[in-house]
């Protein structure tokens, strides 16, 4: 029996593309094949395995249990093959594609990547702002920096950063109420916030267990650079981290009235698939992050 009959490599490649896109049409576009050819390859693979791999519904396909079992190792196998070919073709220049949580990308990473490239002049960097909840398996990133309470199952996840938060505001806004001298003064001002929980927790730590509700004037759904910009403009007091606004504090655009800070349970993680654990450019980037970022305390206040 020919090897192609025993091990349907091309059909597996088509299966991985269809599963990744959840679409026969988009898979056919990626693979430069007709939809008929894509369907034929899936049928060959299903006949080879003896089970259906997709449930075909009107305008929608989903993986069967057999397809769910087949996908992870198939995906890993093709990633290993791509990595092997890339290593074989490797030249002096490499590209490291990083998908990062938006504020970390713009407020810290973009400003510090120069030192990484000085240390590794053979590695070019492509940086994209990306919502941290995206599935790294469905992105083309080499690494992803995401924010979450716990590691992402099935991925290599290195904790790299945790932040403390404390109220900050513009000097002009503080002066408008005669200064912010005690925590209760913040109740006279509108809050810039994704919600009230951070403020409530901070006030409890300050000895005010049930603060009276104040108006939430602006929300940016946790995008801290936008919330910092609104605070600098005087729209309200924001719960911010010194890690991102040190320059604004030094320049007097923001003030931090109190030393008391609050730490939520979210951690910044460097994430990549297990098959990339030995990729030199990823190992170099992880080491640089570890050296460049503040030391982790992992939960201690």
From TrEMBL:
UniProt keywords, alphabetically: DNA-binding, Transcription, Transcription regulation
InterPro entries, per database record: LysR-type_TF_proteobact-type (IPR058163), LysR_HTH_N (IPR000847), LysR_subst-bd (IPR005119), WH-like_DNA-bd_sf (IPR036388), WH_DNA-bd_sf (IPR036390)
Entry's Gene Ontology molecular function annotations: DNA-binding transcription factor activity; sequence-specific DNA binding
Gene3D superfamilies, A to Z: Periplasmic binding protein-like II, Winged helix-like DNA-binding domain superfamily/Winged helix DNA-binding domain
Domain HTH lysR-type as annotated: residue spans: 7-64
Entry's Gene Ontology BP terms: DNA-templated transcription
Transmembrane parts of this sequence: none
PROSITE patterns xrefs: HTH_LYSR
Family label: Belongs to the LysR transcriptional regulatory family.
Free-text function comment from the UniProt entry: Transcriptional regulator of the ttuABCDE tartrate utilization operon.
Name assigned to this protein: HTH-type transcriptional regulator TtuA
Organism: Rhizobium oryziradicis
């Amino acid at each position: 029996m020919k090897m192609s009959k025993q091990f349907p490599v091309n059909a597996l490649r088509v299966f991985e593309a269809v599963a990744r896109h959840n679409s026969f049409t988009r898979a056919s576009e990626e693979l430069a094949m007709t939809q008929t050819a894509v369907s034929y390859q899936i049928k060959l693979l299903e006949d080879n395995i003896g089970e259906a791999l997709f449930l075909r519904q009107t305008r929608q396909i989903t993986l069967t249990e057999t397809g769910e079992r087949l996908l992870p190792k198939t995906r890993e196998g093709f990633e290993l093959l791509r990595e092997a070919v890339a290593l074989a073709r490797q030249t002096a220049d490499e590209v490291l594609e990083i998908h990062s949580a938006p504020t970390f990308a713009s407020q810290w990473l973009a400003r510090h990547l120069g030192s990484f490239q000085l240390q590794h002049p053979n590695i070019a960097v492509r940086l994209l702002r990306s919502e941290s909840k995206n599935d790294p398996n469905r992105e083309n990133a080499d690494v992803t920096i995401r924010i979450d309470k716990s590691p992402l199952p099935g991925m290599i996840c290195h904790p790299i950063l945790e932040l403390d938060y404390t109220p900050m505001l513009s000097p002009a806004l503080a002066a408008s109420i005669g200064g912010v001298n005690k925590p209760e003064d913040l109740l006279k001002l509108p809050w810039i916030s994704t919600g009230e929980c951070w403020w409530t927790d901070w006030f409890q730590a300050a000895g005010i267990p049930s603060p009276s509700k104040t108006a939430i004037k602006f929300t940016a759904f946790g995008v801290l650079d936008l919330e910092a910009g609104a605070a600098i403009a005087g729209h309200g007091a924001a719960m911010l981290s010194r890690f991102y606004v040190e320059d604004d504090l030094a320049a007097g655009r923001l003030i931090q009235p109190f030393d008391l800070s609050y730490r939520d349970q979210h951690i910044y993680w460097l994430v990549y698939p297990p098959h990339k654990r030995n990729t030199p450019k990823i190992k170099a980037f992880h080491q640089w992050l570890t050296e460049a970022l503040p030391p982790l305390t992992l939960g201690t206040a």
